[in-house]
Amino acid sequence: MDSLGGAIVEVGRCTFSFVFSRLSTLRNFNGNIKSLHDEMVKITRLKNDVNEEISIGRMEGWSPTEQTNQWLENVEKLELEVQRVLLEAAQTNATSSVHGNHLCINMCCQYQLSLIARKLCCELKQLINSCSFSKFTYVRKPPIKLVERLQAQPFVGQKAQQRLEQLLQLLDDDRFGKVGIWGMGRVGKTLLAKNLNNKLESVAMREPFDVVIWISTTKDLNLKDVQSQVAKRVNLELDAEESIDRRANRLLEKLLLRKKLLLVFDNVWEKIDLDILGIPHDDGQNNCKILVTTRFLDVCRQMMTDIDVKVDVMEDEEAWDLFAGIAGDVVKLEDVYPLAREVARECCGLPLAIITMAKSMSKKPMVQLWRDALRQLKRSCMQFGSIEVFDSLKLSYYSLPSKILWWCFLYCSLYPENYSIKASELVHCWIAGGLIVGHQTLEEAFDNGIALIEHLKDSCMLEEGDTVGTVKIHGVLRGFAIWISSNEPESGFSCQCSNSLQSNAG
C-alpha cells in the first residue's frame, strides 16, 4: 500500500508540474509576444545600422565579409518567421474578443504561439549578441586612369589639327572654366571631343588634369545615369535607391578630393544643372573644368560657358583627305578617282557620312560600283551619306520648339544651294507667305522674323551667308528640307526637285 500511495503521489506531482508548466506558458502568452516584438524592433534597428555601415564602407573601397552577409541573411529569414507569429497572435486575440465560444481553440493556439514566441525570442537575442564580428574586408580597386581612351577615327587635315590645338589651349587657360563645342548634327563635334580626350593622355599641359571623365548624354536626360557615369570613373559606388540630392552630396565630396578635373558632357540637348548632379564648378580656381558638345548655341548660353567653338563642315580637300585615307589605294585608280572625288563631295563635309561611305567603298575597284554608289547618294535618305546622318538631321528638325520654325526652315530650301539670302528679304517672304502671323504691326512681325532666323542659326539649321546681313542653308540640310517637304505631308510644304528646277513651292 505504501508503494502504491507513493506512486500515486509521484503521478500527481508530475501531472501538476506538467499542467502548471502549460498554464504558465499560456499565462505568459502576451508577455512572450511583447518580448518577441521588442527584440524584433532591436534587431531591425541593428540590421539597418549594419546596412548603413556597408553603404558607407563601399564608398571607401570596403566590402562586407562573408560572415556579415550570412548574418544579414539569417536576420531576414528570422524576421519573416517573427512577422508571421506576430500576425497570428494578433488574429488570435481578435478572435477571442469576438467569439467567446471558441475559447478552448484559442487557448490551444495561444499556447503554441507562446512556445514559438519564446523560442524565436531566444534566437533573436543570440543574433543580436553575435553581431560583434569584423564586418568589412578591404577590396583594392584599380587605380583611376587619367583618361579612358575612346574609339575614334584619327583627325586628318591641318584645320582639324588646329581646332584640336585650340581646345587644348583653352583647357590650359585659367580664364575658361566652361568650354562649349557646337555645330549641326553629325558635323564632327563628338569626333573632335573624343580625339581631345585621347590626346590628353599624353599631351604636356601647364597644369595637367589628374582625371578626365567622359559623360555620354541623350535627348531624354537621366540625371542618375549621369551621376553614375561620373561616380564610376572615380571609384565611387552610388546606391540606385538613394535620392538624387543624397547622391549629389556624396559625389561632390569625392570630386573635391581631386586636384584638377575635366568633365566632358557629350551630345547635350538641354541645360544640365551641375549643382543638382553634384559637380563642382565656378569655384574661382577652375579646378573642375567643363566641356560641352551640343547642336544648340542656346545650350551653351544656358550653361554659361566662358567660350564657344563652332565646328563647321569639312572643306573639300580636308574631306577628300579623310575619305581617301579610309577608302585606301582603290581611289588612285584612273577610272575610279573622279568618281571617288564626286562621292566624297556628295557627303557635304560631314565626317560621319565621309567615314561611312569610305568604309563601304574600300577595296572596290569596279567602276560600276562607284557609279551606283554615286547615284544612291543622290536618292532618298542616302543623299545624306548614311541613314545615321539622316536620322540625326531629322532629330534636330523635330527638336525645333515650334511648327513655325519648321515651316521657316523648309521655306529656305526654295533658294538655290549655297545661295546667300538677305535676311530682310527672307523675313518679308515669310510674312507674305503667312508664316508669321498674330502681330499688330509690320515692325513687330519683322522683329519676330529676325528672332526666328537667329533661332535657326543657333540651332545650326541656318548659317551665316557670304556677306553681312545674309544667311544660307547648308547643302545637306537643303536636301533634307526638300526630302521632308516631299515625303511628310504633315510638314505643310510640298517641294519637288528636278534637274532644271531645284525646288517648287506648292
UniProtKB/TrEMBL annotation:
Quote the Pfam families the UniProt record gives: NB-ARC (PF00931), WHD_DRP (PF23559)
- Any single GO BP term: defense response
Q: Report which residue ranges the record marks as coiled coil.
A: 33-95
Q: Does the keyword Cell wall biogenesis/degradation apply?
A: no
> NB-ARC domain: from which residue to which, for each copy?
161-327
Which keywords are on file for this protein?
ATP-binding, Coiled coil, Nucleotide-binding, Plant defense, Repeat
Q: Where is the Disease resistance protein winged helix domain?
A: 414-478
Keyword ATP-binding attributed: yes
Q: Which domain of life is it from?
A: Eukaryota
The entry lists its GO molecular-function terms as: ADP binding; ATP binding
List the PANTHER family: NB-ARC DOMAIN-CONTAINING PROTEIN, NB-ARC DOMAIN-CONTAINING PROTEIN-RELATED
Name by which UniProt lists this protein: NB-ARC domain containing protein
Organism, per UniProt? Trema orientale (Charcoal tree)
Native organism taxonomy: Eukaryota, Viridiplantae, Streptophyta, Embryophyta, Tracheophyta
